[in-house]
Specification:
binds 2-acetamido-2-deoxy-beta-D-glucopyranose; 8 helices; alpha+beta
Length: 256
């Protein structure tokens, strides 16, 4: 009976981990309620127009679009905020209406490219003048890191699923294999979570920037915040990591 409880606990923890990771994978796949509410990063640019106006004294016309279905990455106008997932990002004109890029496993986290490719070209040039050279604008570096993080998370998800499956037959050998998958999966998820945490930290460097003159600095009006999916990845790591001990105990002590 004690053995059953031990295996049950391990399976439950591996299941929770897998479920959390599946939710992370659907983040920002489209604008339906569940994918929309899960994101790794949120970039709110709603104050950028006012900041440009305050810094340049020019009227800032046509920077934003209100057309929620206008396609992304085609210089059709900036949206109010952008949410990023593993396979695509979505941009919203208000809390519920927005549009997403096509999903692709080639997708990279490049918030600066996402913003500037939506602006009219004259604003893209102005933004490049202001922000290029900042860590936020280093799309190559963020893009490469996000590729690595993606493969770590995918492998971690597969390991969590395999740990769960191999933990079902009540047998010391399969519990041993589950323990192995739980250990390897935890390592993959830990690396993926760490890379994402570092990338978001880097992107958040834009939050404190000011534009305008030294006598009249204006906050840039771009705000990067952590989305719930990052916490879900860390929770998935914690859960799979916690399953290692009960799997290990089952493997060594189970008398079927
Ligand atoms: C989002 O994707 C799900 C699953 O593919 C689908 O059922 C849903 O209709 C989609 N929603 C929108 C708004 O496209
Ligand atoms: C974006 O930032 C503005 C100004 O700080 C705030 O009023 C607005 O609620 C934010 N929008 C979202 C979706 O967070
Ligand atoms: C950028 O172009 C748009 C459309 O041509 C125009 O309305 C806007 O005033 C221009 N803005 C700047 C800062 O040049
Ligand atoms: C978009 O909507 C806001 C408020 O609803 C309005 O102030 C703004 O003029 C609109 N912009 C365009 C380009 O229609
Ligand atoms: C919004 O954008 C879509 C896609 O580009 C276009 O078909 C539609 O006519 C636009 N709507 C308005 C009101 O401009
Ligand atoms: C969001 O924008 C869409 C399209 O512009 C509009 O139909 C919808 O009513 C808006 N929703 C809210 C909550 O403002
Ligand atoms: C996105 O997918 C649609 C339909 O599958 C396709 O027509 C469109 O060209 C794609 N867009 C991009 C930017 O790849």
């Amino acid at each position: 009976m004690r053995g059953e409880i031990c295996v049950g606990t391990a399976s439950f923890l591996a299941f929770v981990s897998l479920l959390l990771l599946i939710f992370v994978h659907v983040s920002q796949i489209n604008t339906s309620t569940v994918p929309r509410s899960i994101s790794l990063v949120k970039v709110n640019v709603s104050s950028y127009g006012n900041a440009l106006h305050a810094a340049t004294f020019d009227p800032i016309d046509g920077l934003y679009t209100n057309n929620s279905s206008a396609s992304l990455e085609s210089n059709a106008g900036l949206r109010q905020f952008y949410l990023f997932g593993l396979y695509s990002h979505c941009a919203y004109v208000n809390d519920s209406a927005g549009t997403c890029t096509n999903h692709s496993i080639q997708n990279q986290f490049q918030p600066y490219s996402a913003l500037t490719s939506d602006m009219l070209l004259n604003y893209t040039d102005l933004t490049n003048f202001i922000l290029s050279g900042t860590p936020f604008a280093n799309s190559d570096s963020l893009g490469h890191s996000s590729r690595a993080a993606y493969w770590m998370l995918l492998l971690g998800t597969i390991c969590a699923a395999l740990a769960l499956l191999t933990g079902i037959p009540k047998n010391n050998l399969t519990f041993f294999i589950s323990t192995g998958f739980a250990i390897i999966g935890s390592i993959f998820i830990l690396i993926g979570a760490s890379i994402w945490t570092a990338m978001i930290k880097k992107a958040q460097s834009v939050n404190g920037l000011s534009i305008g003159t030294t006598t009249n600095p204006v906050p840039v009006g771009i705000e990067v915040t952590i989305g719930p999916a990052l916490f879900m990845i860390w929770a998935a790591f914690a859960s799979l990591f916690a399953s290692i001990i009960p799997y290990m105990v089952s493997c060594c002590t189970y008398r079927g």
